[in-house]
TrEMBL record:
EC numbers, comma separated: 4.2.1.20
Subunit structure: Tetramer of two alpha and two beta chains.
Catalytic activity: (1S,2R)-1-C-(indol-3-yl)glycerol 3-phosphate + L-serine = D-glyceraldehyde 3-phosphate + L-tryptophan + H2O
Gene name of the encoded protein: trpA
UniProt keyword list: Amino-acid biosynthesis, Aromatic amino acid biosynthesis, Lyase, Tryptophan biosynthesis
Source organism: Kaistella chaponensis
Family: Belongs to the TrpA family.
Protein name as it appears in the record: Tryptophan synthase alpha chain
A Pfam family reported for this protein in Swiss-Prot or TrEMBL: Trp_syntA
A GO molecular function held by the record: tryptophan synthase activity
Top EC group: lyase
Amino acid sequence: MKKKLNIYFTAGIPRLNDTQDILKLIQNSGADFIEIGMPYSDPVADGPVIQKAHEIALKNGMTIAALFHQLKEVKSEMNIPIILMGYINPVLSFGFENFCRECKDSGVSGLIIPDLPAVEFEKNYRTILEKYQQNFIFLVTPETSDERIKYLDSLSSGFLYAVSSSSTTGNDAKEINNEEYLNRLANLGLKNPVMIGFGIKNKSDFDKVTEKADGGIIGTAFVNILLNNENWEAKAEGFIRSIIN
């Protein structure tokens, strides 16, 4: 079975209006999902590269409203799932139901909000997400108990995001080849596909983690290309194709 590739980038980099071109490039290069980071001033789950991307995007003027506008402009051309990743405070400031409505209208199919507690999700937000047909994806780590993994899997839809280690994004994930963790996930009988993220930088990493999982998520390595290459298009496309082929 083909392993799924999810490519992450931060909205608003390298320039404010590059979003649509990046979306189409990721899709045309053969990725299966696109995960868009919504810039935030305090991205606690992210390492220095993506923190820098958030800072640049905010300086460029990226906002949630601007992102929705950009997504609507390219919606008719997109045919792979688009997921928004961000933090709860800006979403609440925007208005949670209004945010979910805009997601649906913009062609977004799911959300990853690492700092939204599961109990709050169940109590206050699940029905709103369902109303606007939005998947919600929880994260698990090697330290998450089997019972907790099963619980978060029961709440998730779309896929379950399995963090390869307890580090922030972009760090050399020493546990990326954690056989015990990957085996544990594979043997739990989870209802959702399992996607591994954090620390995947190349095809070798991707192939290793997807021996036991359904797919992998690449963020920092791709964002690095966008930030450090003035003519990033060819290199970004080549990078994605190198993972798949």
